[in-house]
Amino acid sequence: MHLSPAISIVIPVLNEASTIAQTLAGLSTLRAQGVEVIVVDGGSEDDTAALAGPLCDRVTISEPGRARQMNAGAALARGDILLFLHADTRLPHEAGEALDRFVSSDRQWGRFDVRLSGRRAIFRVIETLMSLRSRLTGIATGDQAIFVRRSLFENMGGFPEIPLMEDVELCGRLRRVSRPFCIQYPVVTDSRRWERHGPWRTIGLMWRLRWQYWRGADPRELVKAYRSDVRGTGNLKERP
Fold first, then answer.
1. Structure pTM?
2. Containing H/E element for 127?
3. What is the arithmetic mean of pLDDT over 212-231?
4. d(CA 132, CA 189)
5. Glycosyltransferase 2-like domain location, by residue (predicted)?
C-alpha cells in the first residue's frame, strides 16, 4: 500500500540519543510506503542528530521549544498530512492503514489512542482514562501523535509558540473545525516519567497545570512550575 496523499511525520527531539534510533527504525515500513520522516533537533548535546540522519529523510536544526521545532519541521515537510510524533512514542503497526482511512474521510485532523509502555496495572487504568478523556472532550495531547491536514494547519498558523500546552491550544482550535478522527490502535509512549515520578504525582501535576491553563494562566508561568517540579524530583524528562 502506498499512502496517498503524502504524509509527513515530524519528530521534535532534544538529547534523545537513547531512543531516537529505535523510534525511527519503527517507521521504516511507513517510509517504504512513501511517508516522509523529518527530525527537528532543538540543539541536542548528544549524538541524537548523527544517529537520526541515516534513518530519516531529513534532520534539521531549530531553536529549542517543542512548538517551535514542530512548526519548523512542518514548514519543510512535503506531505499533505502532517503527523507530529514524540521521540519516545511508537506508532502501531496498523498506522498506515488507519491513516489511509483518515485521508479518505471528511475529518480534518485526528489522534491515536494511547498505551503506556509499563506493565503495572495502574498504567492500564491511566491509558484508558487518557483515551476516554480525549474522545469525550475532542482534545488530544502530543503523546497521542496528533495529525492534521496541512492546509488547515497552515490556516491555523501552526502550533502556538508557547512553552507549554501548545498541543491543547491547537486542538481547541481544530475542534471548532471538526471532531477528531480517533484511531483506536494505540501508540505506545514511554512510561518512564510515570514510573520515576510516581503515577499519582504525575497525574496531579498534569491536571493541575491543565486546570490552571484553562483558567487563563500564562504558559510561561506554567512551564516554570513544571520545570520546578521536574528539577525538584530529578525524574520527569524536560520538554524540548
1. 0.87
2. helix 121-137
3. 68
4. 16
5. 8-124
Which region holds residue 79: left if phi is over 0, alpha if psi is between -120 and 50, else beta?
beta
What is residue 54's three-state secondary structure?
Answer: helix
Kindly list the structural domains of the chain, giving each domain's residue range(s) and its CATH number in brackets, ordered by start.
7-233 (3.90.550.10)
Q: Give per-residue pLDDT as tens, 38-65.
A: 999 999 999 999 999 999 999 999 999 9
Pairwise CA distance, residues 226 & 9, whole Å: 27
C-alpha cell at 54: 541515516
Please tell me the distance from the alpha carbon of residue 112 to that of residue 208, in angstroms, as a whole number. Answer: 24
Query: Left if phi > 0, otherwise alpha if psi is -120 to 50, otherwise beta: which for 160?
Result: beta
User: Do residues 64 and 42 touch, judged by C-beta distance below 8 A?
Assistant: yes
CA distance 54 to 179: 37
Q: How far apart are the first and last CA of the chain?
A: 34
Pick 163 or 64 by higher pLDDT.
Answer: 64
Place of cell 491511566: 126
